[in-house]
Amino acid sequence: MTNLFNLNILDLENYFLKNGEKKFKATQVFEWLYLHKEYDINNFSNLKIALREKMLQDFKINFIKIKKKESGSLVKKYLFELNDGNYVEAVLMEHDYGLSVCISSEVGCNMGCKFCESGRLKKVRNLETYEMVEQIILIENDIGQKIQSVVVMGIGEPFDNYDNVINFVKIINHPKGLAIGARHITISTCGLVPKIEEFSNLPLQVNLALSLHAPNDVIRNKIMPINKVYNISQVLTAIDNYIAKTNRRVTIEYVMLKGVNDTKDNAIELAKLLKGKNVYVNLIPYNETNNIEFQKSTNIKEFKDTLMSLGINATVRKEFGSGISAACGQLRSKEV
Ligand code: SAH
User: Fold this and answer.
1) Which helix (H) or strand (E) holds 8?
2) Does 256 sit in the ligand 1 pocket, CB within 6 Å?
3) For residue range 159-196, what is the model confidence (pLDDT) as tens digits?
4) Mean pLDDT of all residues in the chain?
5) Where in the sequence is the domain holding 54, given as residue range(s)?
6) Is 50 exposed, middle or buried (CB count within 10 Å of its CB: 0-12, 13-18, 19+)?
7) Ligand 1 centroid vs 153 CA: distance in angstroms?
8) CATH code of the domain in which 262 resides
């Protein structure tokens, strides 16, 4: 018995066709779930009772639960309890362009980035598609408003749970699903090269962000173990290929760590690395955690100015976090 929120519209169409029904019933089911927010299959009144009964045998709709909320100015953080007792978190942010949610894609993470709280606990399992879809539905229902954009930048490495994440994107992007425009969806990866290549071939206009965080392999090896598998040259080649195929601009994420990757020379080296590519750099002020090894850089503005003066587009990510447990995985860390 699978959760009904695991199915994209094509899966549902196939289900109905296989059961001798018309495929437009898939659209009707999507409308019940995503438009009318009706979560009891018994109440899908435009489907015959016999069909509802069949669906009740094949599908369940069980929700993850909001376990805790923390609010700050323009930000709300949610801790979710999954049906097996695991925890993940999501963050709702109010931007001037609308409401955005950052969701988790895995329970824990195996990438082991040294500065990141999420990786403190190894990956327990992938999230199923429904567990990602429900993070958004529960937040929309909690605030009574629609979400305009989604970033997959919470706990987990989305490309380490590729199939479920892509299925999730198809559901939230569908006009009869949560109808979140593909250009308003961003997936962030630490650089799993084969998956970046696979993603290049998808007919979806979703944004890609790469967590680069260093201008050379010496620094990146120290803070991101994945660099020993796919180094900077390999990952940037994959990004070049992605841009060539999709003609889409890529976001380069760069978390500013004091004394680690934040000098003027680092900025110059980064600019050289990225020169001529269709990318822009998003500088992330580090959210300090219990890990005293890393501190927030005080050099962010100078770093940005250096990049800009060398012709590299750069922005500084708005900080929402202070006052709440903003760093990804912090809320969960307190719980487990
Ligand atoms: N695994 C994916 C997505 C999750 S992390 C990835 O690596 O891209 C989302 C972003 O937040 C990544 O760029 C990550 O390196 C960064 N990050 C992790 N811990 C952080 C912290 N304490 N403060 C600021 N950014 C952090």
Assistant:
1) none
2) no
3) 999 999 999 999 999 999 999 999 999 999 999 999 99
4) 95
5) 2-60
6) exposed
7) 7
8) 3.20.20.70
Tokens for 22, please give them: 């018309």
Same structural domain for residues 48 and 80?
A: no
Active site residues: 89, 328
DSSP, collapsed to helix, strand or coil, labels residue 260 as coil
Indicate which residue's Cα is closest to atom 7 of ligand 1: 190
Binning the chain into helix, strand and coil, the percentages to the nearest 5 are 40, 20, 40
Q: Is residue 132 domain-resident?
A: yes
Let me know whether 83 and 110 are in one domain: yes
The radius of gyration of the chain from alpha carbons, rounded to an integer in Å, stands at 21
Please indicate, yes or no, whether residues 159 and 220 belong to a single structural domain of this protein.
yes
In contact, 95 and 81? CB cutoff 8 Å: no
Q: Which residue has the tokens 């390999």?
A: 234
| H or E element that contains 143 | helix 129-143
Query: Does 329 reside within a domain?
Result: no
Distance of alpha carbon 11 from alpha carbon 26, whole angstroms: 9
Distance 265 CA to ligand 1 centre (A): 23
155 in contact with ligand 1, CB cutoff 6 A: no
Number of domains the chain contains: 2
Q: Is the CB of 251 under 6 A from ligand 1?
A: no
Residue with CA nearest ligand 1 atom 10? 153
CB 69 within 8 A of CB 213: no
Distance CA(239)–CA(130), nearest Å, equals 29
Kindly give the distance from the C-alpha atom of residue 71 to the centroid of ligand 1, in angstroms, as a whole number.
21
Note whether residue 336 is domain-resident: no
For residue 216, the number of C-alpha atoms closer than 13 Å in the C-beta half-sphere is: 12
For 38-95, what is each residue's pLDDT tens digit?
999 999 999 999 999 999 999 999 999 999 999 988 899 999 999 999 999 999 999 8
| Interhelix angle 129-143/162-173, nearest 10 degrees | 40
For the chain, what is the largest distance between any 2 Cα atoms, rounded to a whole number of angstroms? 69
Report the predicted TM-score, pTM, of the whole model to 2 decimal places.
Answer: 0.96
Residues 52 and 86 occupy one common structural domain: no
82 and 218 housed in the same domain: yes
